[in-house]
Specification:
The complex is a heterotrimer of chains A (about 110), B (about 170) and C (about 425).
Chain A lengths: L5 H21 L3 H25 L15 H31 L13
Helix pairs in contact in A: 1-2, 2-3
Chain B lengths: L2 H22 L3 H21 L3 H27 L13 H21 L22 H9 L3 H22 L5
Chain C lengths: L1 H7 L4 H33 L15 H10 L11 H18 L23 H11 L1 H10 L3 H32 L4 H7 L21 H17 L24 H26 L10 H7 L4 H13 L1 H22 L5 H33 L1 H30 L32
Helix pairs in contact in C: 2-10, 2-13, 4-5, 4-6, 4-10, 5-7, 6-7, 7-9, 7-14, 9-10, 9-14, 10-13, 11-12, 14-15
Classes of the chains: A mainly alpha (about 110), B mainly alpha (about 170), C mainly alpha (about 425).
């Protein structure tokens, strides 16, 4: 937007990413950890879009006459990858829960050692 | 403080509060609802960045599909006999929070400070590239320059579908 | 009259708020005639009278209904999650109203461009996004009831909604591909072109329901429309003899009214989307009046009149098409039996989604054929391909499926009600006993 410095968007992205990281470290339920991973991915989306919008002179593809949409491409691919990851990840969580009847992630340590 | 910066600040603070809600609510359903609110607020921020297709795609994909899937799983787990979603109090909490925000502070100082308003890297206000967030521009780029990643993503989604069906099947005796 | 245009088309937050109110108030008011229409029409189709005592012709019946429901006792069950319990009716009520805010209600004359809130460049995606948000009302309502059956009802309802959303999105994608734009106003404008792109037929308009692929997409969209609004025959989640009352078991009084009202708003708004995308939006009749006048100069006065009312009374025609869609909703409710859950899922995933995807491929081939061979030959190729595809499907795919999976039948076999001939033995001669 006019009047909003790019640094504001970057700062917001940074704060959201940090909250996501803290959430992954603190929480024990794999579902909430997953949600914090999604939060991190969204923070990255916001940062990428801010760069794409404010710094169009650095985007590849402009010499071919295409509009500078490389940043938006990245965001689309991140969204698709996140969707696929959530589908498979939640399936894994359900399968683990069906097996063990608990979802405390500190107890899922069978592969350790 | 112009009106645009004020509106941005309101949305930004609300999204930070709902992100904190994701991390700090004990109830998993409230956590999921906070995340939906975060996604909706981020969608508004994408609109302020002129990325219209992505803003509504964010609502369709993240808030409308992924989070519904999360809520399904939470509710099915709630139906179980064991209290599956109750967590013990964790001593890592304080240390993790401190380290996390320290990390953020370091990166913030290095990356964000050169980009604050009187900066020669970012010229403000900046005109959006022609047709920036419009579907026509994204479609042109997606199917010509980014054709390979597009096909790779479709294979990835197919793998995701097959994988989740496989994981959800009961064991065939 | 220019001031109307200036007020309605002004940019800025304040003007958008005024336009939002100008949209929200009429749709809230349209609820009352919609409820009355449903009850009277349903009664007429079922060969009975319907409400005719409260006010003339029963016109005040909906107000009486809503008042009664609002005055009931508000019971909040023990042990519910209060926040989610209160949030769910709001999430069932708001999305339909929000959804209709991107539909154009008129584009000429007094209106210039009348879209309640904004003429979004990605209007179709907006509709899909808000219908995805509409799932939350059901999911949270089912969850917050602290009741296993209402949770299962909520999960089934939301599974139904997200399944049919896919087919709906695909059918809208067919029209987007044919039109070349996601913008609702562009879609309506492209439906004002000559029929099928053939310029000799330029006195007819190219409403999407008149094109072969658009007709198929319209069929898919209509079925998905019924499923998205939880209307019969897809009303398993809220049927009263299934899972008690489904996802709104634990609700009473005002919150219950919210679910009912949300369903009516959704009917009206999806009807609006259908009318805009497939039925030519705010145009009155599928005729280009100035071309008709050029062909038949004798009808000049009539053409001028029709063009004037078509342009200046444009919102009325859109509402008229919505009323026709409402008629179809009620007609289907009176006619078809309810679908079982597995029949419903099979219909969504195994019939409608492949049909919509095949339609998308058809549209893509049509667009290519039109750009290579011209409009007429392109349409011929599209129709031929569609008939070939239909024949292939019926002969190979459908018969094979019926042989391999006889339990997945999508039809209900009606039991014959004509009794067989039964031979009744003649009773023995009964002697009148006693009684002098």
């Amino acid at each position: 937007m006019n009047g909003v410095p790019m640094a504001a968007y970057l700062l917001l992205g940074l704060v959201l990413f940090t909250i996501g990281v803290v959430g992954v470290v603190i929480r024990r339920s794999p579902i909430v950890i997953f949600m914090c991973i999604e939060l991190m991915l969204n923070a990255v989306n916001l940062t990428t879009l801010a760069f794409a919008r404010y710094l169009p002179q650095f985007v590849a593809g402009r010499e071919r006459g295409h509009t500078a949409v490389a940043g938006e491409m990245i965001v689309i691919f991140i969204m698709a990858v996140a969707a696929a990851e959530v589908a498979v990840g939640l399936g894994i969580i359900m399968a683990i829960f069906r097996l063990r009847d608990s979802t405390d992630i500190d107890q899922m340590n069978v592969l350790r050692g | 403080m112009n009106p645009n910066l004020f509106a941005f600040s309101v949305v930004a603070i609300l999204s930070v509060l709902s992100a904190l809600g994701v991390v700090f609510f004990k109830n998993a359903v409230r956590s999921a609802l906070s995340l939906v609110a975060t996604f909706a607020l981020l969608s508004v921020l994408y609109l302020t960045l002129d990325a219209q297709l992505l803003a509504w795609t964010q609502l369709v994909v993240y808030a409308g599909a992924i989070m519904v899937l999360f809520l399904f799983v939470i509710m099915v787990l709630n139906l179980s006999k064991q209290p599956a979603l109750i967590e013990r109090r964790d001593p890592k909490l304080m240390l993790a929070t401190l380290l996390g925000f320290g990390f953020a502070g370091i990166i913030g100082v290095q990356v964000v400070t050169p980009l604050l308003p009187p900066s020669e890297i970012v010229k403000d206000p900046v005109l959006a590239p022609n047709g920036f967030g419009q579907p026509q521009a994204i479609g042109m780029a997606l199917f010509t320059d980014y054709g390979y990643p597009f096909e790779a993503i479709s294979v990835l989604l197919l793998v995701g579908i097959v994988g989740s069906i496989l994981l959800a099947k009961r064991r065939l005796r | 009259m220019g001031w109307i245009h200036d007020v309605l088309a002004a940019k800025g937050v304040f003007a958008a708020l005024i336009r939002a109110v100008l949209w929200a108030v009429p749709i809230l008011l349209l609820l009352i005639p919609a409820i009355w229409f449903e009850r009277r029409l349903l009664a007429w189709m079922q060969d009975r009278r319907g409400p005719n005592r409260v006010g003339p012709f029963g016109l005040l019946q909906p107000i009486a209904d809503i008042t009664k429901l609002l005055f009931k006792e508000e019971v909040i069950p023990d042990g519910v999650d209060r926040f989610t319990y209160v949030l769910a009716p709001v999430l069932a009520l708001m999305p339909p109203i929000i959804l209709g805010a991107g539909i154009p209600f008129g584009a000429y004359g007094v209106y210039k461009l009348l879209t309640p809130v904004s003429d979004l460049s990605v209007g179709v995606l907006y509709v899909l996004g808000i219908s995805s948000i509409g799932v939350y009302g059901l999911v949270l309502a089912g969850y917050s009831g602290n009741n296993k059956y209402s949770l299962m009802g909520g999960l089934r309802a939301s599974a139904q909604l997200i399944s049919y959303e896919l087919a709906m999105g695909m059918s809208l994608a067919c029209i987007v591909l044919a039109t070349g734009s996601l913008n609702f106003t562009s879609i309506v404008r492209s439906q004002e072109q000559p029929l099928w792109g053939i310029s000799s037929l330029s006195w007819l308009q190219n409403w999407n329901v008149f094109t072969p692929f658009g007709f198929l997409a319209a069929i898919v969209f209509v079925v998905c429309m019924f499923a998205e609004t939880n209307r019969p025959p897809f009303d398993l989640p809220e049927a009263e003899n299934e899972l008690i009352a489904g996802y709104h078991t634990e609700y009473s009084s005002a919150k219950f009214v919210s679910f009912l009202m949300g369903e009516y708003f959704a009917m009206l708004v999806y009807g609006t989307v259908f009318a805009t995308v497939f039925l030519g939006g705010y145009n009155l009749l599928p005729f280009n009046w100035d071309t008709v006048e050029a062909h038949v100069p004798a009808l000049g006065g009539l053409c001028h009149f029709m063009a004037w009312i078509s342009n200046n009374l444009a919102p009325l025609w859109l509402i008229g098409k919505v009323a026709a869609t409402l008629f179809a909703y009620i007609w289907v409710r009176a006619t078809l039996p309810r679908l079982r859950y597995d029949q419903l899922m099979n219909l969504g995933w195994r019939t409608l989604l492949p049909l919509a995807v095949a339609d998308l491929v058809l549209v893509a081939i049509w667009v290519l054929a039109v750009s290579t061979y011209g409009a007429g030959w392109g349409m011929v190729i599209a129709v031929v391909l569609m008939l070939v595809g239909l024949v292939v499907y019926v002969n190979i795919v459908s018969v094979g499926r019926r042989k391999s999976d006889p339990l997945a039948s999508r039809s209900v076999t009606m039991v014959s009600i004509a009794p067989e001939r039964v031979v009744i033995p003649e009773p023995a001669e009964v002697q009148p006993s006693g009684a002098g």
